[in-house]
Each structure stands twice: as structure tokens, then as C-alpha cells.
Specification:
Elements lengths: L6 H4 L5 H41 L7 H22 L23 H4 L4 H11 L5 H49 L1
Length: 182
């Protein structure tokens, strides 16, 4: 990154406070990502069990409609939970020796793994200058983590839980209606 790309970070003196803020925020985002993965795995496991039980009751005429509703919504919840934990990695196609693209994140393995070891070390050493470049790089990485969590992982996870809940509510209401109306 050139000095022109990080003017807002130039004036920030390198000190423990800035390091601690960025490191703490990054660790917080990593923990949020891990928590989302655990929640998605719970939905995946429970959905698999519910689907198995629902398919087992599909032959029962009294339970068929509720079982189908439960199957459809639980399957949607399962797929959304899988999307929440599915890695969104697309390798970059870099030309050796060419400048790095503007969206390149030197702290993300999916980007820096496309560099040779020597080029990676060279780019890291350029970023370690006391001109705010390192803070800009850390802030961009933090933004990337947060953006991914908000726009992908947590969105799919929320939809997964909503579909799971809606399926149970609708199947229950349908079964109650069938019992009341005979």
C-alpha cells in the first residue's frame, strides 16, 4: 500500500493502545465467527435428526401434512446453516511481479497464499513502516472480518434459525387445526 492510501493512519503514533484496540476487535470478530460456526453446527445436527424423524412419519395420514411442512422448512434451515459455515474462499489470480490489487488483504491466508514466500515477506516488511501502514492494513482486515460476518455468516445463520422455528410453528398449528377440525 502506498503512503497516499493510508493518510488517516499516518498521524497515529504507534503505541500499545492502537495495537490493543485493533487486536482486541480482531479477536472479538474471530470469537463471533467461532460462535456462529457452533450455532450452525447445532442447527445442522438437529435438522438432520428432525428430517430423519419427519421422513419416518410421512406414511401416517394424520401426520403427513405436518411432516411435509416440517421437512420443507427444516431442509431450508439445514441448507442455510451449511451456507453459513461453508468457506467463501475464491483464490486470487495474481500475475507474478504485478502490483497487488486494491482489495488485497495481506493478513488473509486466502490472499497471501497466492504470493511466493519472498514476495510475502517483502510485502509484510513494506507494511511494517512507522507511517501508519500497518494500522491501515489491520483496520482493513478487521473490516473484512466484520463485513463477512454481517453479510454472510450471521445472515445465513439467522435465516436458518427463522426457517427452523417457522417450520415447527407451522407444523404444530397445522396439526392442531387437523385435531380441532377432525
Amino acid at each position: 500500500m502506498s503512503e497516499a492510501e493510508s493518510p488517516s493512519f499516518k498521524a497515529i503514533p504507534e503505541r500499545n493502545t492502537g495495537d490493543a484496540i485493533l487486536r482486541t476487535a480482531q479477536q472479538h470478530h474471530v470469537q463471533l465467527s467461532a460462535m456462529a460456526d457452533v450455532k450452525a453446527n447445532i442447527i445442522i445436527t438437529v435438522s438432520s435428526i428432525v428430517l430423519t424423524l419427519s421422513f419416518g412419519n410421512i406414511e401416517d395420514r394424520d401426520l403427513r401434512a405436518s411432516a411435509i411442512v416440517l421437512i420443507v422448512f427444516t431442509l431450508a434451515a439445514l441448507l442455510l446453516a451449511i451456507l453459513a459455515v461453508l468457506p467463501k474462499y475464491r483464490p486470487l489470480r495474481l500475475t507474478p511481479g504485478a502490483p497487488l490489487p486494491p482489495h488485497f488483504n495481506l493478513l488473509f491466508f486466502g490472499h497471501f497464499a497466492e504470493l511466493s514466500r519472498d514476495r510475502f515477506l517483502e510485502e509484510i516488511s513494506k507494511s511494517m513502516k512507522p507511517d501508519g501502514t500497518i494500522y491501515a492494513m489491520m483496520a482493513r482486515d478487521l473490516y473484512s472480518l466484520g463485513y463477512y460476518l454481517a453479510h454472510f455468516k450471521y445472515r445465513y445463520l439467522r435465516l436458518s434459525y427463522l426457517f427452523f422455528l417457522a417450520g415447527f410453528v407451522l407444523a404444530t398449528l397445522l396439526q392442531i387445526w387437523r385435531l380441532v377440525t377432525g
